[in-house]
Design brief:
The protein is an alpha/beta fold. It contains eight helices and 13 strands. It folds into two domains: about 250 residues, Glycosidases (TIM Barrel, Alpha-Beta Barrel); about 60 residues, no CATH class. Helix content is about 25%, strand content about 20%. Helix 2 packs antiparallel against helix 7 and helix 4 runs parallel beside helix 5. The protein is globular, with a radius of gyration of 21 Å.
Length: about 325
């Protein structure tokens, strides 16, 4: 028989759910967050770059991963998916706790999502909440609405019922809705009530973080997944995402009652300039956010990859501000 998911799920004991505010206040705060994302001028915020992971990235180094946020797939259906060899036990990602703990310990924002499998929507919402309730108001919540393994796909009323149940269970937290344009036009009532997380790729090429992905904002989305073949310093391929806002706006999605607000802008020191290739072919480059060694090799036409050197000694492990060299350049 399946194990008791409340005992063998991914609940964290150290988090205590906050008292639940009046639902009207939460709805107003959620609307404020959505409005802030929709109408804030571009110069007023810096978009956040991050990844989403699931049991397929079991064991990935989340702590050292270069990302502003990490969204973790935690539950599927009502527990019918069972593949212990791939870190999923009766619908629960068995590596989710570690992933989320490492993300928080390294200063990243966190999110969690449930994969819809087309069963009873209230039962699926209950399963999601029961296994993740201690993350509520700490993580952005999301529903993954796709066609695979989901016989209800295309039934927007299913989405409404799941979302309504989550708002009820959480005392007023409004999940994001992850889907793709192929799902059809998202009904206006869902767009008005929940943040959209849209998946659409320009191509399947390998890429690092992009500041302006193809067709960004075309659907009024709060977040865009723009690559399923992304490269970050500790794992690839991986899904890459751009959240169209700052950390305080992320926090409002996670907890509409938090009263999060923008902080005073900080002065960012300019990064040292990179040294172009010398006559001997040497290169010295200061790593910027979203860059990869592969991308530098393409940019400078500097091959092979083995001729690049990082301070860590591993060309797959580097951080913003590291000075990397090619053929001993610099």
């Amino acid at each position: 028989m399946p194990p008791n998911t409340q005992q063998e799920g991914i609940e964290l004991g150290e988090f205590k759910n906050k008292s639940k505010p009046k639902r009207l206040a939460c709805a107003i705060a959620a609307a404020v967050a959505a409005t802030a994302l929709a109408f804030a001028p571009a110069a007023a915020y810096a978009d956040m770059q991050g990844v989403d992971v699931s049991n397929w990235q079991c064991g990935a180094d989340i702590y050292d991963m270069q990302a502003d946020f990490v969204v973790v797939g935690t539950t599927w259906g009502t527990g019918q998916v069972h593949n212990p060899a791939n870190c999923i036990s009766w619908g629960v990602n068995q590596d989710a706790n570690r992933m989320l703990a490492d993300a928080q310990a390294s200063g990243k924002k966190i999110g969690i999502y449930h994969y819809a499998m087309g069963g009873n929507p209230e039962a699926e919402a209950d399963f999601f909440y029961r296994n993740t309730s201690n993350y509520v108001r700490h993580a952005v919540l999301a529903l993954d609405w796709e066609a695979d393994d989901n016989p209800a796909f295309g039934d927007w009323d299913w989405v409404r019922r799941f979302m309504n149940r989550m708002v009820e269970l959480t005392g007023g937290v409004y999940p994001m809705l992850y889907t793709a344009p192929m799902a059809g036009t998202v009904p206006q009532d869902l767009r008005d009530r929940y943040g959209l997380w849209i998946a659409q790729y320009a191509n399947m090429d390998s890429t690092g973080y992009q500041s302006a992905p193809w067709m960004i904002g075309a659907y009024g989305e709060a977040m865009r997944q723009y690559s399923g073949n992304g490269v970050v310093n500790t794992w690839s391929p991986i899904d890459l995402n751009l959240f169209r806002g700052e950390g305080w706006q992320w926090d409002l999605y996670a907890d509409p009652s938090s009263g999060a607000a923008p902080s005073a802008p900080a002065t960012t020191p300019s990064a040292p300039a990179s040294t172009p290739a010398s006559q001997s072919g040497g290169i010295s480059h200061t790593m910027q956010w979203g860059e990869t060694i592969w991308g530098l090799a393409v940019q400078y036409d500097a091959w092979p990859l083995s001729a690049w050197h990082t301070p860590s000694g591993d060309i797959n492990r580097y951080w913003v501000g590291d000075v990397v060299t090619y053929n001993g350049g610099g």
